[in-house]
Specification:
About 75% of the residues lie in helices and about 0% in strands. It contains six helices and no strands. The longest helix has about 35 residues.
Length: about 160
């Protein structure tokens, strides 16, 4: 039986982007359903109502994924891996920078605790996407992959916000 890594290793970059985007979309949808059933308003205390539809689309689909991926996936993970290498600190697990990036990503979305929880989960997935893509294609294409998957995920959030 093939492992997930073996299956992913056979896919090209574009197909991986589609798979990773669907995975983020599914996780976001899962938590959205859970919070809906618990009658938790995910959009409470967000500033999204202050944006026009066009501004919200640009911000959510382009600006936020680029800036956040540069900071949280590329910046924090690469810095953490660089520090680990320079200190020759193999006792520091290689995924610690990814976990730190996910925690900071979640905390940066402090609109409400439900939103922090979802963005923490999304941050963990984005860190995993970054690590996997970095291993296969290098850090530049890993950054681009995170921007793409984050942007696609935010398209779903944008549509949900517009429809609510």
């Amino acid at each position: 039986m093939a492992t997930l890594a073996q299956i992913l290793d056979k896919l090209n970059y574009v197909r991986l982007a589609a798979i990773f985007s669907l995975a983020l979309f599914a996780v976001n949808g899962f938590f959205s359903i859970i919070f809906y059933l618990l009658d938790v308003d995910l959009m409470a205390n967000t500033e999204f109502d202050n944006f026009s539809t066009i501004e919200l689309f640009f911000f959510a689909v382009f600006f936020a994924p680029i800036v956040e991926s540069l900071i949280y996936q590329f910046g924090i993970i690469e810095s953490g891996l660089w520090i680990r290498e320079k200190l020759k600190a193999s006792s520091i697990h290689w995924f610690i920078p990814g976990l730190l990036s996910a925690i900071l990503f979640g905390i940066s979305h402090t609109y409400n605790w439900s939103y922090v929880f979802i963005t923490l989960a999304i941050g963990i997935l984005l860190a995993a996407v970054y690590y996997y893509t970095r291993k296969r294609f290098g850090s530049t294409l890993a950054l681009v992959m995170c921007i793409i998957t984050h942007g696609v995920n935010n398209i779903g959030a944008f549509i949900g916000q517009i429809l609510s």
